[in-house]
Amino acid sequence: MIMIKLVTGGAACAVPGSSSSSNPLGALANSLLGSSSKTQERLNELPGTAVTGPSTSLYSGGDNQLSTLPGFENEEQELRHPDAQASEFLRGFRGADHGGFADAWNEIQRPQVPPHGPALRGGPLPYTEFDKVYENGFQSLPQPILDGPPGMVLSNFLHSFMRSSSTGVPFGPAMLPALGLSERDKLCIRDRSSIMARHFFADKSEEFINAQVNTLLHSLDIDSDFRAKGPIPGRYPELEEYWNESQGAIQPVVHNPANGWINEFSQQKSLHNDPEAWVNMFEQQHGAKGWASEFQQEQSQMTSMNQINSANMAAMEQTRMLAHTLSQNNNPKFQNSKFLQFVSKMSRGELIVDDNQIKPAGVSSSVGWAEEYQQQHKGAPTSWVNEFAQNELSHGTNGWAKEFSAERELHGSVDDQWVQEFSKLNVNDWAEEFGHQVGEGVSGESSEWLDGYNEYLNEQQAVKQRSNSSRGVYVFSDMNPYVGRPDPLKEGQELFRKGLLSEAVLALEAEVIKNPENAEGWRLLGITHAENDDDQQAIASMMRAHEVDPTNLEVLLALGVSHTNELEQAEALKYLYGWLQHHPKYGTLAPPEQSASLFFADVAGLFNEAARLSPDDADVHIVLGVLYNLSREFDSAIKSFQSALKLKPRDYSLWNKLGATQANSVQSADALLAYQQALDLKPNYVRAWANMGISFANQGLYEDSIRYYVRALAMNPKADNAWQYLRISLSCASRNDMLEACDSRNLDVLQREFPL
Amino acid sequence: MANSTLKSAALLDQMKLHLSSDAGKDLVKKIGLVYQLNIAPKKIGFEEEIYVVDLKKGEVTKGPYEGKPDATFSFKDEDFIKIASGKMNPQMAFMRGAMKIKGSISAAQKFTPDIFPKPSKL
Fold it and tell me: Are A116 and A376 in contact (CB under 8 A)?
């Protein structure tokens, strides 16, 4: 072979009897062909070095090319003449300016980015951020005194956070003593503070809000997102990183790193309540066999690389030196010569030598990659496997199996229910439909049916939860920090006045737990729920208020409005009639015996009479407006609300009522103006935000509607209607990629994707 | 329709108005099918009120369709509201027996919550 002749000749002639490193060519030859016995042995030990298949034949073509290159022949001849020519040749190399070869050299020297690079670098970042905050903590300006028992410290601290909102000064972080907060507490504080912050800073930008919340959370040693939540870098950082990454899209909140995996799983479980779903989810993300095959690929690549690696290490080292020497020369002949290209390729590991044959390595950077990988892992690729196995064992298999069986037991009843439901179906109809479907060749729907089934299971679960909260029964939030406060009603009123609706709900709940007979507490709670766009809870609390004080006019009106919103005509009519009955001025108009059988026309007639009696009573106009909404006489309703607004121009809920009526009668443009008025008067009026979303959606402007729904949900994540509407808008706007975030109620993702 | 006590009647009234808007006209263009809805206050098949949502002409009318609708649905008042507001998936409703379908399945597949307007809240 030419190559052998070239190199052996070169070695023998240029520097006879020497294989020292001073002669790069000779050294190369030694390490390549094993004139050094040590290398030879090593090469022999490795029978598996061959890169198989096409690469061999590929190179044999290249080999021919090399030999037929005219320039190459010349070099060969030149090298055959030892003394004068060869040394001149080498001198020529050295006298060169480096320009043309510098690039090649740089390329060789450029550190290769390991494939795990980004993942590894992602790790420490949150900590540096944390350090920054930590340092700031010492410099930050006067803070409230944070001493005393943990409970006091915490509440003082949270209050200082709230105070910061009124001054508008960014909230400074503070150092706190260890508070011993449980994971659950932390989670609770995290969720509530981010909701509250959205209420506080309804007029501020999203970044500002996030910064505030993060500051608060850092000070409390609560991680604001799951990345920062990551464990102290453990033994398997990459593995965990990878896992988190792959799971992040599904459920980014990991509470406790050690139990992360199991938590993920159980959250997943409760969300989807169906083993299939989990499998689907996984497969969706990784492809059916994706993960396994990826692993196998990597594994096999590793083994082959590993073997090739040690054999070629020495050769590469040598060629690097050779390339360096060559690069000193700028003789154009050499710059373009195949030989130089060959050597530099060799030094970069693109070509490898095996059994006296030269072959291109599979991937240009794969050797480098393998090398990096090995350095990172200090040796065997099997360690990765071991780590994985350990990890799996430590909190994997058993937990998973247990989880699964527990789940089965819990929901076994669901399956039975399903069977019952199924048997209720008219089987003939179904068969007929099926025949139809097959006949029409509608295929591909079957998966939809499967989805339907899965969703059905989910719904069963949801229904079960909701059955506790069946109509008219008030559902209290758990973990209410206002329970036990001396005067939660006052706090609730204060919070409501400030517009912190979700927070006011908690304070008022604490009040009605303390004083279940407090009609004012229930009433304000109901109003708050209505403004927070939750009519079910509003009705439930208003009914309690009504029980305590059946003649309260505001309660009666609120109940009328909420039932109207829920399209419940008869109930709405009953309460609105009650309003008239109990009104000190118009009570005489409404004979009590009539309340048994109410007809819309009669009630409307009575109210019109009342309006004639005192045209300056805004409330009568409001009730009339609601009544006309009930009968879908929207034009009359709009007129009534407009008359009321002349008397009460600063009533934000009245502006919203006008807007909603206009929207329902397809005057969306006017509606948007009215909602804007309402929001100017009360920036965190969740109902108006949600209504704006509805108006955009009804005009077919789905992208816009999504932003408003998300905004409303950020202020009150419990607004179920808005979630359902958001889902519809997402699928109408062809944003199916976000459906999962919607289904898992992941507001972080949604807010990032749809800022307002 | 104002004399109906069904919740669905309220929604269908709004639907009628909605179909006259631009978004409604797009709907007619996109779907172009006729649906007949048999809505029962308490139990499917009893005391049904029949409405026709004609997405060919862009109309909502009370009373049975003259001719053959592309699909006919039967459900309870409450379930229809759930479907139209996105609380319940139509496929699921069908599987639970909460909705019965006659006619073409492919037409029925286009009967989704997004064809109904969402009521705004006072």
Answer: yes
Q: Enter the ipTM.
A: 0.91
A481 inside domain: no
**Residue A425 is nearest to which of B92, B97, B106, comparing CB atoms?**
B97
CB hemisphere CA count around A694 (13 angstroms): 33
CB contact under 8 A, B120 and A694: yes
User: Domain limits at A11?
Assistant: 2-110+304-353
Is B118 close to A421, i.e. CB distance below 8 A?
A: no
Report d(CA A706, CA B86) in Å as an integer: 15
Which helix (DSSP H) or strand (DSSP E) does residue B83 occupy? helix B77-84
- A449 interfacial to chain B (CB closer than 8 Å): yes
User: End-to-end distance of chain B based on CA atoms, in angstroms?
Assistant: 21
Which of the residues in chain A have pLDDT under 70? 1-155, 158-159, 161-181, 202-204, 222-319, 322-471, 592-596
| B66 has a chain A CB within 8 A of its CB | no
* Residue A69 belongs to some domain of the structure: yes
CB-based contact, B43 to chain A, within 8 Å: no
Task: Give the span between the Cα atoms of A75 and A89, in whole angstroms.
Answer: 10
How far B62 CA lies from chain A's nearest CA (Å)?
16
Structural fold of domain B7-105: Nonspecific Lipid-transfer Protein; Chain A (3.30.1050)
**Nearest residue on chain B to A653, alpha-carbon basis:** B122
| Residue B57 sits at the chain A interface (C-beta within 8 Å) | no
Using a CB–CB cutoff of 8 Å, tell me whether A458 touches chain B.
no
Total residues found in chain A within this entry: 756
A394 contacts A400 by C-beta, under 8 angstroms: no
**What is the C-alpha to C-alpha distance for residues A448 and A433, in angstroms, rounded to an integer?**
15
Task: Dig out the tokens for B27 from the structure.
Answer: 């709907």
Domains of chain A: total: 1
In the chain, the amino acid numbered A59 is Y
Which of B39, B100, B116, B120 to mutate: most A Cβ within 10 Å?
A: B120
**What pLDDT does A686 receive?**
93
Report A:360-419 residues touching B (Cβ under 8 A). none
Q: Do B92 and A424 touch (CB under 8 A)?
A: no
Q: How far apart, in whole angstroms, are the C-alpha atoms of residue A328 and residue A325?
A: 6
What percent of chain A has pLDDT above 70?
A: 42
Taking only the tens place, the pLDDT of each residue in A669-719 is 899 999 999 999 999 899 999 999 999 998 889 999 999 999 999 999 988
Q: Is the CB of residue A572 less than 8 Å from the CB of residue A535?
A: no
What is the rounded CA–CA span in Å between residue A669 and residue A662? Answer: 9
Assess if residue A531 is contained within a domain. no
The per-residue pLDDT of chain B, averaged, comes to 88
Whether A565 and A535 have beta carbons less than 8 Å apart is answered as yes
Give the distance from residue B17's alpha carbon to the nearest chain A alpha carbon, in angstroms: 6
pLDDT in tens, B23-33: 888 888 888 99
Sign of the CA dihedral running A671, B87, B12, A469: negative
Q: Is the dihedral of CA A202, A207, A208, A210 positive or negative?
A: positive
Per-residue b or e along A44-81, where b marks 16 or more CB atoms closer than 10 Å to that residue's CB? eeeeebbbeeeeeeebeeebeebeeeeebeebbeebbe
pLDDT at res. A78: 44
A87 in any annotated domain: yes
> At CB < 8 A and 24+ separation, what contacts does A574-583 make?
A574/A598, A576/A603, A576/A607, A576/A623, A576/A626, A576/A627, A576/A630, A577/A603, A577/A606, A578/A550, A579/A553, A579/A623, A580/A606, A580/A607, A580/A610, A580/A623, A582/A550, A582/A551, A582/A553, A582/A556, A583/A553, A583/A610
**Interstrand relation of B49-54 and B59-62 (parallel, antiparallel or unpaired):** antiparallel
Please report the pLDDT score of residue A663 as a whole number.
92
Q: Which runs of consecutive H residues, i.e. helices, occur in A168-205? A: 183-200
* pLDDT surpassing 90 at residue B20: no
Q: Tell me the two tokens of residue A498.
A: 């400030």
